[in-house]
Amino acid sequence: MTTLVCIGSAEATSPTEIALSEKSVLTITDDGSSAGYVTISWAGKSDAELKTPASTEYQLQIKQQSQSDDDYKTIYQGRDNATTLSGLENGNYQLRLQSAEGVWSEPLQISISHHALNKALAFFAIGLVLFLSLLILIFSPSHKSESE
Amino acid sequence: MQDPVMSSTMAWGLIALFSVIWVYLGWHIGRKSSGLDDYMLAGRNVGLGLATATAMATWVTSNTTMTAPQLTYQLGIWGMVGYSLGAIGLLLFAPLATRIRELMPSGYTSGDFIRLRWGNTAWRAFLIISLFYSLGWLISLGMAGGLLVNALTGIPYHYGMTVIVVVCTLYTVFGGLKAVIATDFVQSILILIGILILAGFIMAQVGIEPIYEALEKERPGLLNLLLPASIMFLFNNLFFGVGEIFHSNVWWSRAFSFAPKIGGRAYFLAGLFWLPIPIVAGFIALAAPALGVNVPSPDMVAPLVATQIFGLAGAILVFVIVFSALASSLDSVLAATSDLVVRDIYRGHIYKNASAEHLRKVAVWTIILLGVMTWCLSLPRIATLGALLHFTGAFVASTIWPIAFGLMRRKGTQLQATAAMVLGTLAGLYGYFAIGFYVAALVSALVSGLIMLPALFQRNSFNWSSLIEDQPKSQPKSKTEGTDQ
């Protein structure tokens, strides 16, 4: 589920990626779509270039896939080149990014599909039984009655 | 990322200040250490205050201060509560620590116990699991140091990571476990005071109501108590924490080093002190939507929020808390992993008749080698902190039942214990990739437990006195570690 990729900070941007920034590419760098979260990043400027005011601002927008383009809602505006969405409900979403040069990216589709509640409760029940068993194993006095 | 709020000059000043304090303490204490027991196990006579502080501070890692907020930001309320269940590991280890000290008064490592209780094959499987986990923990600590310094000050990741790894390695080399425990005491006080101040500031300046309203409007899923992944995560994190503590030599070496009858009380108190820390740290993450803080990388949410609210003061506070948390854990893992390598790999497999003096020298070089490995493996930043951390959950949770069973019952076979660890780990890894990180430890513990279950119906077959190992004969040129005791 969790992709082992580097998303530690906004500084990890290769020259190739910078070249793409006229029309930025949205990518999923941490896919928690079955848990309602996802980290999205986009090819951006280097840290040094981020110091340049105004011209480096990005705008990230989101909408439900079934909605029209007029329903896009801005969820981030600034100079970072990644963001984490969380607490998302089940559904298909579409994101787009406006680069510093004012060009909109190709839309990125994300599909959020939470695990079934029954499955989650089954894991919870297993955990509870295991935990109680462990308590009994550790705190039951039987080992003290065994010959040492 | 936001512009750093702390100048690099100030950051280097703070780093230098704490580095000098830790290294001086390590050097000062190291001068008074003599013999292998002093270096590896702090003379086996640590009192209740220091024992509680070192257990609490070691368990407050960069994961507590940075990953607990990350999981809260990703999984909501249950992510925060689930992380705090890590305290159960310390609480349950309290009776085990007492028993370990009784059964193995002259033991050195968790590997000693597995070898004597479950045989050589289980011992080797255990060593692979434990060393993999230790390395993962060391890397996550090194990475957290670099990420933190970079986020707060703009100093490149590699510089921050390097300084933290080098400083911790230095004072651990100088002073051994005594230095680790002494610095842990200071660090635990800094962590507790810092966290309390931070929580108080957030309550006073932001307040619960605005945080709740912003979450309800923008991220209602984080308030959902029936979020399926979070429900799965609850017991997973509990078993992950229990697995980490039950198997790791970090905790066993402390059980051996505490004075008799101290371990149980120390671990119990440490668990109680630790319990609220992830809740407070996680709460910081929930304030991000109310403050309009963008989170490019979820493992950096706590520093981002703190600096957004408090500016420079917040940055300094977070820096002191996390730097202390990092150091208190990094030194402990270095020392305990070195013990495992020296005792179980070097003495157990390579040089069985090594003298105490020789092993002490090897311990020093092992700590240095582990420091170098940590630095090398932290360079490429191969995962987020949370992903790296939970990957190891599949490994450690498989050891819970063999250890608990082995300490509390005379039943069970070597084959069962080995199979429980190997198959439990494999099943946990399957769960990690097929379902998610939030079930890896739980699946591992389940399979491992099922394999150990038939042992309940077997006859008592183990003699507890087998855990007291025959001490090696005195070496002609130097005393052995056995005669130190």
Task: Describe, in plain words, how this protein is organized in 3D.
The complex is a heterodimer of chains A (148) and B (485). Chain A has 148 residues and is an alpha+beta fold. Chain A folds into 2 domains: 1-112, Immunoglobulin-like, CATH 2.60.40; 115-143. Chain A has helices at residues 15-19, 47-50, 117-139, 142-145, and strands at 26-32, 37-42, 58-64, 73-78, 82-85, 91-98, 108-112. In chain A, β3 and β4 (73-78) form a beta hairpin. Mean pLDDT of chain A is 77; it is low at 1-21 and 45-53. Chain B is mainly alpha-helical and 485 residues long. Chain B has one domain (8-235, 264-381): Sodium/glucose cotransporter (Up-down Bundle). Chain B has helices spanning 8-32, 35-41, 48-59, 62-75, 77-84, 87-103, 110-153, 157-205, 208-218, 228-247, 249-257, 263-274, 276-286, 288-291, 301-350, 356-378, 385-391, 393-396, 400-408, 414-434, 440-452, 481-484. Chain B starts with 7 loop residues before the first helix and ends with a helix. Residues 477-485 of chain B have low confidence and may be disordered.
The CATH architecture designation of the largest domain in chain A is Sandwich
Estimate nothing, just give the exact number of structural domains of chain B. Answer: 1
Query: Would you give the CATH topology of chain B?
Result: Sodium/glucose cotransporter
**CA-atom Rg of chain A in angstroms:** 23 Å
Number of helices of chain A: 4
Give the oligomer, counting copies of the same chain as homo and different chains as hetero: heterodimer
What's the architecture of chain B in CATH terms? Up-down Bundle
* First-to-last CA distance of chain A: 47 Å
**Roughly what percent helix of chain A?**
10-25%
Total count of helical runs of at least 4 residues of chain B: 22
How would a crystallographer describe the biggest sheet of chain B? none
Mean pLDDT of chain B: 86
